[in-house]
Amino acid sequence: MQQQSRQHAQNQTGPQEPQGSQPSEQDQKQPLALYGGKRNRRVTVRDLARAKERGEKWPMLTAYDAMTASVFDESGIPVLLVGDSMGNCHLGYETTVPVTMDEITMLTAAVVRGTKRSLVVADLPFGSYQEGAVQALRSSTRLVKEAGAGAVKLEGGERSADQIDLLVRSGIPVMAHIGLTPQSVHAMGYRVQGRGEEAAHQLLRDAKAVQDAGAFAVVLELVPGEVAAEVTRSLHIPTVGIGAGAGCDAQVLVWTDMAGLTPGKLPRFVKQYANLRASLSEAASAFADEVVGGTFPAPEHTVN
């Protein structure tokens, strides 16, 4: 598909939204903040576009189950990503590559069931869209119809433009992902992307390609802060940074990293806001000690 065709399709249709997700009359009169604004419907891609226009920053977290998702939803997180990062932090894989469509469909459905307001974005796992646009549409349709996802995310810039174009024209909102793309770990490794003049220019070309294809937002992962800020200024769609500095429109973290559940050394860009690993370990040890010591269950925990 030629770039002119993609631009024409975007101009004609704009970002697509799931049926029934139109903003309420009150929201249209007084746009609500993405974080902290009380709304009685799910966040939509149009809400994200309006936030970009207002210069409003917003948070995004990953989620992989209904209970955790409900906590984030109640906390006001406007966008939840059912990322293929589940492979590393939920399913026990060494990388994201082994994650399957069955796995991501099941966990996306759980996150959707656990939420009322957050826009739920589901990752397309490795091997589910690389063959071309038709395969991407088949995989995305499954995530939307079976799991209830409000949007999908896929990796790649210019190389994924055809897939994005067909999905958007078919009514499926797409979040793009450039910079470090973890599904390509065997080819590029885990290293900063966009360093040097030519690499920075390629990153900008990739960003504009996904925007022209119709993506409603783009994740910038492990990109120098100055480069990410320049990309953000050059686009009319929101950028979501992870290891890309404060110049992006939004920020995302893997929730187990953010909450201190992930063991071992974490990337420099991660900030831990809690220490859930220590808290859970203490709770499990306390439970075990009481069982072994015969103090649990006590009479108040026993059915008469």
TrEMBL record:
Pathway annotation: Cofactor biosynthesis; (R)-pantothenate biosynthesis; (R)-pantoate from 3-methyl-2-oxobutanoate: step 1/2
Locations listed in the record: Cytoplasm
Residue ranges of the TM segments: none
InterPro entries assigned: Pantoate_hydroxy_MeTrfase, Pyrv/PenolPyrv_kinase-like_dom, Pyrv_kinase-like_dom_sf
CC cofactor: Mg(2+)
Biased composition (Polar residues): 1-13
Positions of region (Disordered): 1-37
Cofactor note as given: Binds 1 Mg(2+) ion per subunit.
Pfam families according to UniProt: Pantoate_transf
Catalysed conversion reaction: (6R)-5,10-methylene-5,6,7,8-tetrahydrofolate + 3-methyl-2-oxobutanoate + H2O = 2-dehydropantoate + (6S)-5,6,7,8-tetrahydrofolate
Keywords, sorted A to Z: Cytoplasm, Magnesium, Metal-binding, Pantothenate biosynthesis, Transferase
Recorded superkingdom: Bacteria
Quaternary structure, from the entry: Homodecamer; pentamer of dimers.
Similarity comment: Belongs to the PanB family.
Listed name of the protein: 3-methyl-2-oxobutanoate hydroxymethyltransferase
Organism: Streptomyces albiaxialis
